[in-house]
Each structure stands twice: as C-alpha cells, then as structure tokens.
Amino acid sequence: MSESSHVHQGTDFPTIRRTNLETLQVNIGYRCNQQCIHCHVNAGPNRRESMGRSTIDNVIAYLASSNLHNLDLTGGAPELNPYFMDLVHSVRKMGVHVTDRCNLTILEESGMEGLEEFFADHQVEIIASLPCYLKENVDHQRGKGVFDASIRALRKLNQLGYGQKGSELILNLVYNPSGPFLPPPQRVLEEDYRGELNERYGIFFNHLYTITNMPIHRFENMLVSNGGLASYMKLLREAHRETNLLSVMCRRLISVDWRGYVYDCDFNQLTGLPLRLDGKSRVHLSELMGIDLEGSPIMVCDHCYGCTAGQGSSCNGVLADA
C-alpha cells in the first residue's frame, strides 16, 4: 500500500454520533487568491468550483426552516463567490450569526473594495488566517508579501472596531503549524501573538485558534513527498485523547460543499466521505429540511485522529485548552 492511500482506508477510530446540531458550515467555493502549502482544500487561483444561486437559496431556506443560529462560511476565499454578500445579508436579516473564514489578503484584491465595511455593517465574525507573527514564516507558508498584506488588512479591521476592547465586532486569528507537528498550547501561543502583534504593529484581536494540520490533500502530498506520512499519522494516533471525543466539532456541525451535498465535517468533505442518511450514498442539503440529525452516526477515518490529538483541534481551536 502506498503512503498516500493510507488515510483513505478503513480505520480503528472510535465510533461517534451527533448530538444537537448548532452550526451549518458551508464551503462556497475552492477558488482562492492564495495557494498555501498546508491547505486541505487544495484551494488556489485556478480553481473554478463555486456555489451557484440555487444552492445559495437552499442554504438560506435550510437556515430559515431550522433552529440553527450559526452559519460558518469557508472556501477557498469565500468572499470570491459572487453571491457571498447576498447570502450574508439574507441570513443576517434572519438573526443568524455569520462567521467568515478570511485569509485577510482578500481585502486587497480588485473588486473587494469596501469588504471590511460590509463585514462591520453586518457584524460578521472574522476568523483570519495568520500562521505566525513573523514575516518570514508566514511568507514561506503562504507566499511572498502575504504577511505585509495581512498586517494592512488587520489594521483596517481594527480601525473599524474589530478586535477592540468593548466592541461587538469579533476578530479571531488562526495558527497552523508549519510542518508535521502538533500546535503548541493555544493559551500560551495566544499571549505570544498578542504581545508581538501589538508591540510591533499595534494590532488587536480577540482570540487565537490553533488548528492541527490534517493529513489530506496538499499537506498529505507534502508528507508523502518527504516520506513522512506514516510518522505523522503515528504522532496523531499516539497523542489521541479519548476525552476529546466528547467535543469534536462534527458532533454539533454539518458541512456543505459548493454543490450543496452534506458531510459530517469539512475534512470528510474534502476526502469524499459524505454524511449517510437512510442508506443514501450522499445527501443534498435540500433533502434535510425538517430532518433531526441528533443521534445519527458520523463517518470516521484515520484523519479524525488529527481532531483528537493532544489538546484536540476544531475549526474554533483546541477542544481542551492547556
């Protein structure tokens, strides 16, 4: 068996089931203005997959018919979808909280003028990628010039009130390791970020989330080329904590791809493991209207160990802060 097929085979990861659903996470397209080496989506400037109007309407209809109050938008760069603003505007009128997973540099792209004001006007929570507070590390991981552009974007958001004390405009940052190792303790790293970014650049933010790199797609390919996939999987397995199973994000979240098909999480989406319901091989969001998913089984694979290793990992950072 080749290393690259390892994570896609059967797994001994524990069986888990969904609890009450809280969040609809929607990937509205794989196109991105960056091409990061750790990206599990394989996003980049040449990707063309983008959620269409009818599927956007399915998302709005599903949220209107459910008790969910959280919409988590991701990509690629989600802002590059032509219906991004329409979607945000529609669900905010319904009282749904919107989180946008922003790479920051999108604010400087042509056609994105006024995006930061749109975020503020609609009280969109920003979760922004900034894998390090050092320029050389960020540019190595994400591309030359990305760090300086990210700092400019953060300053714009700060000027609008994002990340400022007493403001309702939330700005969180995300750290991903630069290689095949687990993130350091989130709380300690957050204080490092806070001190360095404020002292060097006058930047403020609310929280730092550390997220483990998943051994899928681009990061997996890098591991395979270096002969390091087996050792990374060993690291994840040995760091597995049973207590993290209680808090993994897939128990309270479903993930929707750009075509509207539903998965147990973003990582399953990108490895082609769809949510299973009533024996169907895949389920479209439009088929879930009025369906209670509590207690339903969750598809698991070896990459799930990335969520339960060490402090645990989710789209909102660690599961058990140390």
Task: Provide keyphrases for this structure.
globular; disordered N terminus; 8-stranded mixed beta sheet; 10 helices; alpha/beta; 30% helix; 8 strands; 322 residues; TIM Barrel
Provide a descriptive summary of the structure in words.
The protein has 322 residues and is α/β, with parallel strands linked by helices. The chain has a single domain (3-308), classed as TIM Barrel (Alpha-Beta Barrel), CATH 3.20.20. The chain is built from ten helices and eight strands. It has helices at 53-65, 84-93, 115-121, 135-142, 146-159, 186-201, 217-225, 229-238, 266-270, 305-308; strands at residues 23-27, 70-74, 97-102, 125-129, 171-175, 207-210, 253-256, 262-263. The radius of gyration is 19 Å and the shape is globular. 45% of the residues are buried.
The CATH topology is what?
TIM Barrel
Which CATH architecture is right? Alpha-Beta Barrel
Q: Give the total of domains.
A: 1
What percent of the residues sit in helical stretches (DSSP H or I)?
A: 25-40%
